[in-house]
Amino acid sequence: MFERVAFIGIGLIGSSLARVIRRQGLAKQVIACARDEATRAKALELGIVDEATAAPEKAVRDADLVVLATPLGAYPKVSAAIAPELGMGSIVTDVGSVKAAAIRDVAPLMPEGVHFVPGHPVAGTEHSGPEAGFETLFEGRWCILTPPAECDQAAVDRVAELWRRAGSMIEIMTAERHDKILGITSHLPHLIAYTIVGTVADLEDSTQSEVVKYAAGGFREFTRIAASDPVMWRDIFVNNQDAVLEMLSRFSEDLARVQRAIRWGEAETLEKLFRRTREVRRGVIEAHQT
Ligand code: NAP
What we know:
- With 290 residues, the chain is an alpha/beta fold.
- Helices cover 52% and strands 14% of the residues.
- Strands 3-2-1-4-5-6-7-8 form an eight-stranded mixed β-sheet, sandwiched between helices.
- It is globular.
- The model has no long low-confidence stretch (mean pLDDT 95).
- The site of NADP nicotinamide-adenine-dinucleotide phosphate (NAP) has 29 residues, from α1, β6 and α10.
């Protein structure tokens, strides 16, 4: 599909896509860019890239596909560095979890004739780094592309095809819609997990050790989510402020309603809510998204 693919960032997501490209022979050459020597050495050792460099501008030279797979906060600097080296007709895509900010930070820096196709594979784990990646990560998961109206259709089709080869289903939508939906399905749950685990971290030592001991009661699922990469999630919240704050205020209202129901012993209200939420879980299972 491609001559030379350059990954800027080769962590969980970048390395998983690199594995797909490698195993299926979708590119003649794969090159990675990462700041740390240890990250580059790992990517080479895993055999998922041919070359590794610390210089983004070097990585993208002669690449017909560039995949930005760093935390969102690195986008402005990385885009400015690669822009002068991007070839006419080349495609730049990304995997960032917030799309309006990705377009804001990348699109204006792209030279004429370079096609930027923003994307987001809705798949992941709480682990980071090239060793955390695996080839089947994207199988059966959605990949959302949010091309701006002026985006080249052939470029969008090629990026979509790449994700299909990775086993994903494709959805196209606006960046604003994406950010709103992911605000509720991904960002808010992470915020709740970070907060609840933070609450426990603030408890006095004796209670905290018991919480850890009996974590299987539900808390452990929150600790798993709250173990996600701090830099990546810092950047997500800073870049999806509006949608997250809107969802958070709706959530706070609903929480207050539940609080009231508990105070007044409104058993029926609680049971009704818990029955409705069970239905949502059934829907997720039926959609094969567990
Ligand atoms: P990760 O495992 O931490 O990998 C990030 C990679 O970027 C590392 O290889 C890191 O290597 C490199 N990097 C960081 N800053 C850089 C810079 N300034 N220049 C060059 N390389 C840099 O993170 P990830 O989970 O793959 O996430 C990457 C992107 O995917 C994020 O934008 C995130 O929003 C998105 N995403 C994540 C998930 C998920 O569940 N994790 C799911 C969907 C989308 P060095 O530290 O050595 O530079």
